[in-house]
Design brief:
The chain has about 300 residues and is of the alpha/beta class. It contains 12 helices and 12 strands. The chain binds ketopantoate.
């Protein structure tokens, strides 16, 4: 019997990944933040409901807290970016020399911090484009499927255990330059997410609200990407962002969903990371700065954390 796969985080992404592994008959365990959350899960008889279109499927997935004790060999971290450091600290006593980590976070910054903290372990990063939300504590809606890219920032070869992603039917690819992929995604998120919050609109409407700023913003983001070694022309980046806006026109961005639900956003790992990186690289980014500061003001007025 192979060792179980552990998924840290019972948010929409953690549930979506757990459901797909359970569907494939892979032994996976959810690690929840509090004993109360684990007790609620037990009260649902460990049943995880996956809704896709008009199909509802239920899977049995055991849940536990970080303190459960059993050593962890393969850990998929599916928390929000701002929760990674604390969640990993809680689980650290269960990790060992052979443990492998896969991080699914949005933005950048949380991944590098985890790599530094667990410098002796392989820490893989993923860029996930599925859309999912929780209808209930143990019920996840898979609203849109998209490709996932996985890679090792230290460019070690692909580890064998990732074949479980194939078994689970995840649409994924090994990506030798995962940092570039994550930087591109961060640039797209910088151009879309804050505007959806500031104008309280779906992704498809952002350009109506930011027509004049759009091209200068794309140029700033392109210079930022170049400073990080990501070679993409401004026209190509503009096309990429427009493509995502079109493809997700009816969606509410993850940041807008967080604000509407009164949840802490990932601002610090998206705009904050971009802003700090631009400063370190000595770039002038007036449009990005203004977007960041307007978003911070908006969050402050909504009583939400600024980081
Ligand atoms: O990744 C996204 C997000 O909402 O965080 C986009 C691409 C904007 C899709 O909604």
């Amino acid at each position: 019997m192979s060792e179980p796969l552990h998924i840290l985080g019972g948010g929409s992404l953690g549930l979506l990944w757990a459901a797909r592994f359970a569907r494939a008959g892979i032994d996976c365990r959810l690690i929840l933040r509090t004993p109360e959350a684990a007790a609620r899960w037990r009260a649902e008889h460990h049943q995880l409901v996956l809704e896709q279109g008009n199909r509802l499927q239920s899977y049995s997935v055991p849940a536990e807290t970080a303190e459960a004790g059993e050593p962890i060999s393969r850990l998929i971290v599916a928390t929000k970016a701002w929760a990674v450091a604390e969640a990993l600290e809680g689980i650290a006593p269960r990790l060992h020399a052979g443990s492998q980590l896969l991080l699914l976070q949005n933005g950048l910054g949380s991944q590098q911090a985890a790599s530094e903290r667990f410098a002796d372990l392989p820490v893989l990063y993923a860029s996930v484009t599925d859309g999912a939300w929780k209808r209930d504590n143990n019920h996840v809606v898979w609203a849109g499927s998209g490709p996932t890219q996985v890679g090792d920032p230290q460019q070690r070869p692909q580890p064998g255990w990732l074949s479980m992603l194939d078994q689970a039917g995840v649409d994924w690819q090994w990506q030798p330059d995962i940092l570039s992929v994550l930087w591109m995604k961060l640039a797209v998120n910088c151009a879309i997410n804050p505007l959806t919050v500031l104008h309280d609109c779906p992704n498809g409407d952002v350009l109506r609200h930011a027509a004049d700023d759009f091209i200068p913003l794309v140029q700033e983001l392109q210079a930022l990407l170049a400073s990080q070694g990501v070679a993409v022309g401004a026209a190509e980046l503009e096309q990429r962002i427009r493509g995502v806006i079109q493809a997700t026109a009816a969606n509410s961005s993850s940041m807008r969903q967080d604000v509407q639900a009164g949840r802490r956003t990932e601002i610090d790992f998206i705009l904050g990371h971009a802003w700090r990186s631009a400063r370190s690289a000595g770039l002038l980014t007036p449009v990005l700065d203004s977007l960041y500061h307007r978003l911070q003001t908006h969050l402050h007025q909504s009583g939400l954390p600024l980081n």
